[in-house]
Design a protein that fits this description.
Layout: H1 2-15, H2 22-49, E1 52-60, E2 66-73, E3 79-86, E4 91-98, E5 100-108, E6 113-121, E7 125-129
């Protein structure tokens, strides 16, 4: 029994022995933080310079399918029109949409306009259509 306790004590003391001093740990942390900040800065700059939105998700929480339409103009004053038909409890995506202010319409299956308005698309967004 004494041999087991002695062996366990020696083994645990070897496991708890520090492999690095405090300066190495601090330098490693600084290196890791600077690498992450460089990655974050490059990602945020790329998003600001981009003139397009990668995706717009529209989710339908109504009891019937809907048609989601948007109208607007890009920087060259060309008209941009997009239309999505979204099934009940479904979702659809618009990809590569020019940034800007768009007029939207949500049309029900009986051709009645459920909602209409304007929205400024600047970044990826999820739009949820639900009963009010």
């Amino acid at each position: 029994m004494k041999h087991i306790i002695l062996f366990t004590t020696l083994f645990i003391s070897q496991l708890l022995f520090s492999q690095a001093n405090i300066t190495n740990v601090i330098k490693g942390g600084e290196l890791l933080l600077s690498g992450l900040s460089v990655l974050k800065a490059s990602k945020s700059n790329a998003k600001k310079d981009n003139k397009f939105i990668e995706s717009v998700c529209v989710k339908n929480k109504l009891s019937d399918k809907i048609t989601f339409r948007i109208f607007g103009r890009n920087e060259q004053e060309e008209e941009v029109k997009r239309e999505l038909v979204i099934p009940k409890e479904g979702k659809e995506y618009l990809y590569i949409l020019p940034k800007g202010i768009y007029t939207y319409e949500i049309v029900l299956t009986n051709k009645e306009i459920y909602k209409k308005g304007e929205y400024k698309f600047e970044d990826d967004v999820v739009i949820i259509v639900k009963e009010e």
